[in-house]
Amino acid sequence: MIYQGKALSASFLEDGIAELCFDLQGDSVNKFNRVTLQELGEATSALAAAPGLKGVVVTSGKDVFIVGADITEFTELFQLPDEELREWASKANDVFNAFEDLPVPTVVAINGVALGGGYEMCLACDFRVMSSSAIVGLPEVKLGINPGFGGTVRLPRLIGCDNATMWVATGNQQKPDAALKDGGVDAVVAPELLKDASIDLLKKVIAGDFDYQARRVEKTTPVKLNDIERMMAFTTGKALVAQQAGKNMPAPLTAVKSMERNCGLNRAEAIEVEIEHFIKLVRTPQSNALIGLFLNEQGVSKYAKTVAKQGGDVKQAAVLGAGIMGGGIAYQSAYKGTPILMKDIAESGLALGMKEAGKLLSKRVSRGRMTPDKMASVLSSIRPMLTYDGFDSVDVVVEAVVENAKVKHAVLAETEKHIRKDAVLASNTSTISISYLAEALERPENFCGMHFFNPVHAMPLVEVIRGEKTSDETVARTVKYALQMGKTPIVVNDCPGFFVNRVLFPYFAGFDMLVRDGADFRHVDKVMERYGMPMGPAYLMDVVGIDTGFHAAEVMAEGFPDRMRHPFKGISQMMFEANRFGQKNGIGFYKYEEDKRGKPRKTEDDTALAMAAEAKQQTVEVSDDDILARMLIPMCIETVRCLDENIVRNPADADMGLIMGIGFPVFRGGALRYIDQMGVKAFVEMADRYADLGPLYQVTDSLRAMAANGESFFK
């Protein structure tokens, strides 16, 4: 044994060839935490001193190679002053450099996921052999930072500046064929051949068949381009990256600028440039938000998987009500491997549901993501029917009929008679109380909400709503089914609108009040889109359906009359009364016509502008900052109320719900992260300036107490 630690070990395999194996004790994956980084340095020193060493093969003792850095540890480091953070980053890079400078050749066997620091470890090796089931990449920009262990230095020297720009700026995972084509790995082999192939390559390098020293010179010296060539290599790439990333995501362009500056330098100088840009990005609010989002997502996923373990098997599902929503649910279930019955009361509904599923599958085939045979197999696992035949073998039934309490009561009560006593019955209602709907059932403990967002195939969130009598087993099985469908479930407690819609409607109310006070709805849309929302509030209402929004707003007003019933007729109500429902009938705040691809194209409409003028009751000077504040304050305060009332489990669930459910900008991190970044005290002071607008703008006692105590939602 050359070296033995808690994260890795080194030992001789055969004459002169040592294996450096990453196998972090007590964890299911390998990652670069403090222990791993320290031990890599120690193991490298031990290898350098090992007598008779001729070469090193780097392997993993787990199903993955190295998933990346342990961001939970490194977030603490990011709080350090610049000089201390620079010193830490320099020492970390010294470890990678020392390994790269070993006096013998190195080959890495990439058996699974090798991302971020994991792939940077691969780049520090002389040669890379990749399993055909592995993935590699540098996804750091998705956390708002750039690679920090030499990734922007070594990658462009290996695969060229053009390719490196795309790899680093997109942060995309690279599959074996693409990685091999670009030069990010040297060979791709079947998983069972990986270790032997890597050792075989190492032996050939030792024998002199391949020049590893030349590889090192290439990685440690300036890129072989003159000044004009370097400028040309990056000019087009920077323009493309800036256009695609936008001004709210600085990491992609900053990472490319780091490569542009460092590619004319030697390794030591180039790494200093990388560290400089790394520290610059660590200090941005976007990095704070995106890293927080990553941690939130891990927490939400871990909780869902823990809950799902308590749920029974979901081998057969059913959906009530075909149409667009039912067809979308059926498609998602079948596509992810759970066969589903799709029941409707009319052949036309079933035809619409199957058409929706077929359309989504056809898109996958046309884009090369699915074979026609696979499409046929998925479609055949959706069984359209007008009766309850087969419902006695269903594990979960999702009701997706019209959003009408009386209709749902009748459908749920009838369905309960045709399913097993242990089957879960779930409603896809978006606003109606689960406890109220359960009143129609003999087994309310087996009933919960399962709120999908439209379009089902594209929206990742599912709200699993616990009613007053819902059992833990019912929640567990529903969460399990959501996970099987490839969705991210958050468990919330029952109230009008549940969590996402309850928080969304104060946002819409803020919009109605802005139009009432003379703001141009087109400009409000632009301000919110510049903030990062996928679409402004007027456009969003058109997409959701103004009629759907109006009926949901009535439910919210009944449930929370003190702040969600408004003493004026807003522009949204006026649109509804004029039968302007948005995209579904071609006219709302905007007018819609199909483009060449059959998608609705938005244009301005004079009638809508005239209606907005009619809705105006006064003219108030509002700046863009006022628009942002008046739109976001109600949403943020309602999110806090949901947390106070235990509607949502914790701040992580709340922010993830908003990001996945309504498209809150990922680089903002969510409503509670927005409050934290501003500072709770500053947010309360801002809200107080608008408090005369009504209860939606008046902060909770809990928030005021947090401000007084200097507290935050996230550490």
TrEMBL record:
<protein>
    <recommendedName>
        <fullName>enoyl-CoA hydratase</fullName>
        <ecNumber>4.2.1.17</ecNumber>
    </recommendedName>
</protein>
<feature type="domain" description="3-hydroxyacyl-CoA dehydrogenase C-terminal">
    <location>
        <begin position="497"/>
        <end position="592"/>
    </location>
</feature>
<keyword id="KW-0443">Lipid metabolism</keyword>
<dbReference type="InterPro" id="IPR006176">
    <property type="entry name" value="3-OHacyl-CoA_DH_NAD-bd"/>
</dbReference>
<dbReference type="InterPro" id="IPR036291">
    <property type="entry name" value="NAD(P)-bd_dom_sf"/>
</dbReference>
<keyword id="KW-0442">Lipid degradation</keyword>
<feature type="domain" description="3-hydroxyacyl-CoA dehydrogenase NAD binding">
    <location>
        <begin position="317"/>
        <end position="495"/>
    </location>
</feature>
<dbReference type="InterPro" id="IPR012799">
    <property type="entry name" value="FadB"/>
</dbReference>
<keyword id="KW-0560">Oxidoreductase</keyword>
<keyword id="KW-0511">Multifunctional enzyme</keyword>
<dbReference type="Pfam" id="PF00378">
    <property type="entry name" value="ECH_1"/>
</dbReference>
<comment type="pathway">
    <text>Lipid metabolism; fatty acid beta-oxidation.</text>
</comment>
<dbReference type="Pfam" id="PF00725">
    <property type="entry name" value="3HCDH"/>
</dbReference>
<dbReference type="InterPro" id="IPR029045">
    <property type="entry name" value="ClpP/crotonase-like_dom_sf"/>
</dbReference>
<dbReference type="InterPro" id="IPR006108">
    <property type="entry name" value="3HC_DH_C"/>
</dbReference>
<dbReference type="InterPro" id="IPR008927">
    <property type="entry name" value="6-PGluconate_DH-like_C_sf"/>
</dbReference>
<keyword id="KW-0520">NAD</keyword>
<dbReference type="InterPro" id="IPR006180">
    <property type="entry name" value="3-OHacyl-CoA_DH_CS"/>
</dbReference>
<dbReference type="InterPro" id="IPR001753">
    <property type="entry name" value="Enoyl-CoA_hydra/iso"/>
</dbReference>
<keyword id="KW-0276">Fatty acid metabolism</keyword>
<dbReference type="InterPro" id="IPR050136">
    <property type="entry name" value="FA_oxidation_alpha_subunit"/>
</dbReference>
<keyword id="KW-0456">Lyase</keyword>
<dbReference type="Pfam" id="PF02737">
    <property type="entry name" value="3HCDH_N"/>
</dbReference>
<comment type="similarity">
    <text>In the N-terminal section; belongs to the enoyl-CoA hydratase/isomerase family.</text>
</comment>
<comment type="similarity">
    <text>In the central section; belongs to the 3-hydroxyacyl-CoA dehydrogenase family.</text>
</comment>
<keyword id="KW-0413">Isomerase</keyword>
